[in-house]
C-alpha cells in the first residue's frame, strides 16, 4: 500500500513538473529591445502612421498627373423646340434641323499652369511632414513601451520584496508562536507578530495585481493578445552600473532632432509654399485643346440614314485674372498664420528646453538617491539581523523586530523606485531629444 501511494505521489510530481516545463516553454521571454521591436512591427498606431505616408505619396502622384494630357470621349444631343429663323427679302427661313448629334475625342493639356507647379511642391512637403509624423509616432511608441517595460520591472521587483517580507514575517510569527506555546514569550509578542504578518497580506495581493496590470499594458502596446504569456528579462538592479556610467559622460541637451520642432519647421515651409500658391491666383494660365468630332443633323430618328461628318479643332485657352477680392484677404490670412506659427515655435522650443533640463536634473538626483538608498538597504539588513539576534537572546522586543523588518522593506522599495525614476527620466529625455533608437 505504501509503495502504491509513493508511486502515485511520484507520478503526480512528474506530471506537475512536466506541466510547469510546458508552461515555461509557452512563455515569451523578452528584453527591452524585443518589446520595442515587436511594438514597432505590430502596434496599430505605427501601421496607421506608415499608411499615412503612402496616402501622401499617392496624393503627390495625383498632383503630378495634372501635368499630363486629359483625354475624354464626349457626346451630346440636342432637340430643337423652335428652330432659329432669319428674314430675308420679306421671307422667313428656318435654320438647322430638329435633331443634332455630336460625338468624338477631346484632349486638353496645361501649357502654363503656375498653381499646378506650386501644388506639386506643396505635396512634396506633405510627404516629408507625414514621414516626420511617422517618426514622431515611432519615438512616442518607443517611449511608451520603454516606460511600460520599466513599470513591469518595478512591479515585479516590488512584488518580490513584499513577498519576501511576508514570508519573513510569517517565519517570525511561527517562531514567536512556538516560543509562546513554550511559555518563553508573552501573548502580546504573538499577537504583534501575527498582526505584522496579516497586515502585509493585502499589500502582497495588491502588488501581484500590479504585476498583472503592468504586463497587460505592455502587451497592449506591443499589439499582442491578452492570452499570450509574456515575461520580461532582468530586474531594475541590472541597470545600476549603466546609470553611473552614463552620468559620468557628457549629457546631451540638443533639440536639433526633436520631432515636434521639425514638424513646426515643415508647417512653416508649408505656409510659405501656400503663400506662393496664392500668388499664382494673379498669374495667367494657358492650356491647349484638341477635338476630333463627328456631327450629324437630321429631322428623323432613322440613325442608319444619318450623314456623320467629321471635323477637328486645335486651340489655345488663355486666362488672365483681373480682379478677385478674396485673393488679397487670403494672402493676409496666410501671413498672420506664419507669424502665429513662429511664435508657437519659439514658445515650444523654450518649453522643450525646460523639460530636457528638468529630466537631466531628475537623472542626477535619482543617481544620488540610488547611492544613498543602496546604503540604506545595507544598514536596514544589518539592523534586522541585530534585531533578530537581540530577540532570540531575550534582549530585544517584538516591536524592534517588526520595525526592523518594515525599515528593510521600505529601504528596498525606495531603492527600486529610485532606479525606476532615473530610467523613466532617461526615456523622457530621449523623447525630447529625438533619439530614434532605444537606449538603456
Q: What does this protein look like?
A:
By secondary structure, this protein is α+β, with helices and mostly antiparallel strands. It has nine helices and eight strands.
Give a quick precis of the structure:
With 440 residues, this protein is an alpha+beta fold. Helix content is 67%, strand content 15%.
Tell me, briefly, the overall form.
elongated
Q: How many separate helices?
A: 9
Taking strands numbered 1, 2, ... along the chain, how are they ordered across the largest sheet?
A: 2-5-7-8
The largest sheet is: 4 strands, antiparallel
| Rg for CA atoms | 40 Å
Structural category is alpha+beta
| Oligomeric state of the chains in view | single chain
- List SSEs in N-to-C order: HEHHEEEEHHEHHEEHH
Mean pLDDT, as a whole number? 87
Q: Termini distance?
A: 59 Å
Strand content: 5-15%
> Would you identify the regions where 5 or more consecutive residues have pLDDT less than 50?
1-13
Helix content: 55-70%
Give the strand tally: 8
How would the blueprint of this fold be written?
Blueprint: H1 2-26, E1 28-30, H2 32-42, H3 44-65, E2 70-79, E3 84-88, E4 91-95, E5 99-112, H4 114-182, H5 187-221, E6 230-232, H6 240-247, H7 259-279, E7 285-298, E8 309-319, H8 325-392, H9 398-433
Parallel strand pairs: 1-6
Antiparallel strand pairs: 2-5, 3-4, 5-7, 7-8
Helix pairs in contact: 2-4, 3-4, 4-5, 4-7, 4-9, 6-8, 7-8, 8-9
Amino acid at each position: 500500500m505504501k509503495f502504491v501511494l509513493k508511486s502515485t505521489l511520484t507520478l503526480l510530481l512528474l506530471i506537475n513538473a512536466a506541466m510547469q516545463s510546458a508552461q515555461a516553454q509557452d512563455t515569451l521571454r523578452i528584453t527591452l529591445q524585443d518589446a520595442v521591436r515587436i511594438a514597432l512591427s505590430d502596434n496599430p498606431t505605427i501601421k496607421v502612421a506608415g499608411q499615412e505616408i503612402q496616402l501622401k505619396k499617392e496624393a503627390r502622384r495625383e498632383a503630378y498627373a495634372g501635368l499630363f494630357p486629359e483625354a475624354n470621349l464626349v457626346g451630346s444631343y440636342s432637340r430643337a423646340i423652335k428652330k432659329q429663323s432669319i428674314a430675308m427679302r420679306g421671307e422667313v427661313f428656318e435654320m438647322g434641323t430638329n435633331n443634332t448629334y455630336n460625338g468624338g475625342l477631346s484632349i486638353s493639356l496645361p501649357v502654363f499652369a503656375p498653381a499646378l507647379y506650386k501644388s506639386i511642391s506643396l505635396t512634396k512637403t506633405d510627404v516629408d511632414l507625414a514621414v516626420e509624423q511617422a517618426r514622431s509616432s515611432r519615438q512616442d511608441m518607443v517611449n511608451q513601451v520603454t516606460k511600460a517595460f520599466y513599470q513591469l520591472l518595478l512591479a515585479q521587483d516590488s512584488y518580490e520584496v513584499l513577498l519576501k517580507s511576508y514570508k519573513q514575517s510569517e517565519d517570525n510569527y511561527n517562531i514567536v508562536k512556538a516560543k509562546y506555546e513554550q511559555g518563553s514569550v508573552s501573548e502580546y509578542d504573538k499577537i504583534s507578530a501575527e498582526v505584522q504578518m496579516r497586515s502585509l497580506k493585502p499589500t502582497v495581493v495588491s502588488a501581484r495585481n500590479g504585476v498583472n496590470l503592468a504586463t497587460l499594458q505592455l502587451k497592449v502596446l506591443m499589439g499582442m493578445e491578452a492570452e499570450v504569456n509574456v515575461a520580461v528579462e532582468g530586474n531594475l538592479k541590472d541597470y545600476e552600473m549603466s546609470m553611473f556610467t552614463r552620468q559620468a559622460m557628457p549629457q546631451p541637451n540638443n533639440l536639433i532632432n526633436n520631432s515636434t520642432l521639425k514638424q513646426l519647421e515643415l508647417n512653416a515651409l508649408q505656409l510659405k509654399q501656400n503663400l506662393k500658391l496664392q500668388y499664382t491666383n494673379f498669374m495667367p494660365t494657358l492650356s491647349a485643346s484638341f477635338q476630333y468630332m463627328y456631327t450629324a443633323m437630321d429631322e428623323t430618328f432613322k440613325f442608319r440614314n444619318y450623314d456623320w461628318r467629321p471635323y477637328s479643332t486645335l486651340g489655345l485657352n488663355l486666362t488672365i485674372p483681373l480682379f478677385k477680392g478674396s485673393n488679397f484677404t487670403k494672402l493676409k490670412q496666410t501671413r498672420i498664420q506664419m507669424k502665429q506659427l513662429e511664435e508657437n515655435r519659439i514658445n515650444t522650443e523654450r518649453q522643450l528646453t525646460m523639460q530636457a533640463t528638468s529630466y537631466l536634473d531628475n537623472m542626477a538626483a535619482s543617481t544620488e538617491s540610488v547611492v544613498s538608498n543602496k546604503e540604506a538597504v545595507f544598514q536596514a539588513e544589518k539592523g534586522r539581523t541585530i534585531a533578530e539576534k537581540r530577540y532570540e537572546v531575550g534582549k530585544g522586543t517584538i516591536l524592534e523586530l517588526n520595525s526592523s523588518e518594515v525599515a528593510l522593506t521600505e529601504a528596498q522599495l525606495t531603492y527600486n523606485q529610485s532606479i525606476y525614476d532615473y530610467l523613466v527620466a532617461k526615456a523622457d529625455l530621449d523623447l525630447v531629444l529625438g533619439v530614434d533608437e532605444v537606449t538603456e
